[in-house]
Amino acid sequence: MGVSTSGPDKGIALVTVDFPPVNALPVHGWYELADALRAAGRDPEVRCVVLAAGGRGFNAGVDIKEMQRDSGHAALIGANRGCYEAFAAVYECEVPVVAAVHGFCLGGGIGLAGNADAIVASEDAVFGLPELDRGALGAATHLARLVPQHLMRALYYTSRTATAAELHAHGSVWKVVPRTELSAAALELAAEIAKKDGALIRLAKAAINGIDPVDVRRSYRFEQGFTFEANLSGVADRVRDTFGKAQGGTA
């Protein structure tokens, strides 16, 4: 349980997240993930990172129950800062990051996948932001990197999800494969990237980030400001207190 790093092939670091039962990460989990991604990117032998997850789905966001147990705002602040660091660690990783997504990719999962350089997904993967149902805001910055603007807004306002096939049609998912083939497909793409010159691939990553039209760190931080406002006003608590009463799960 937790975050682990392995080296399945030359030039590739596999960072795996495993927080049962649904990969809803506690505060310390987001920081562990950020540290693992940054360490992998700094390794001069690594030319590509694959971000994967164990269990039922890729990521279900933050651990809402951890917030519910906190009578103050420490858990909220910790989760927001942790997510900020983990999302940034994907985007700023010194080498390309391939996200291998299976099952659900929700909330914080969108922040991770949306900041990845490429996404390989299983046929059962679904992507969405149930934030409005959880008393939160955020990661529209990253969903906007996966789908067109108006679709992003409709998905955000309704808390609906999009399938891997739909994202593939929009060009944001590289390949959709059966669940049993996900790991091999992600490693295959990573191996192709890892064949490039190590110094040049790092320059390429920095150059591509430099021409992005949106500063993802600044944009996401702006969104987080409204999450704090929702909490201070009591709106978030009112919505969050319904979590787990009508339906189970985390987001």
TrEMBL record:
<keyword id="KW-0443">Lipid metabolism</keyword>
<dbReference type="InterPro" id="IPR001753">
    <property type="entry name" value="Enoyl-CoA_hydra/iso"/>
</dbReference>
<protein>
    <submittedName>
        <fullName>Enoyl-CoA hydratase family protein</fullName>
    </submittedName>
</protein>
<dbReference type="InterPro" id="IPR029045">
    <property type="entry name" value="ClpP/crotonase-like_dom_sf"/>
</dbReference>
<comment type="similarity">
    <text>Belongs to the enoyl-CoA hydratase/isomerase family.</text>
</comment>
<dbReference type="Pfam" id="PF00378">
    <property type="entry name" value="ECH_1"/>
</dbReference>
<keyword id="KW-0456">Lyase</keyword>
